[in-house]
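In this supplementary section we document a worked example of the pipeline. Step one takes a protein sequence of length 119 as its only input; no multiple sequence alignment statistics are reported here. Step two produces a three-dimensional model, which step three serialises into structure tokens for compact storage. The input and output of this example are shown verbatim.
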Amino acid sequence: MILAKVTILCLLVTLALAGGYGGYGGGGDGGHLQVTILCLLVTLALAGGYGGYGGGGDGGHDVYAYPKYQFEYGVQDHHTGDQKSQHEIRDGGLVKGEYERAEKGVYQRLNYVYDSHHL
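The serialised model returned by step three reads:
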């Protein structure tokens, strides 16, 4: 119930700040963005975060989600010739990945492995 009240309060504060106060001038945002972000963070904290440890909708019990993901990205700047890429895989306590970059004739590659069971 408190989450709903805080969410509504944050929504009202955000709407009030977005509409301004109707006064003269208009220079700067007066910190409105920071207040909006703070309200969002408070709401997320009360909701149990972003789906990580503990949290919302489970009656207050700790929840542990098995950490498993993979991602990759790459960027190429055809104007400068710079290239960057990364890929990473995680399965439980094991994380493996590679980061590459090439710029101005210099090529670098970094391979990394983290294994929480064999530190």
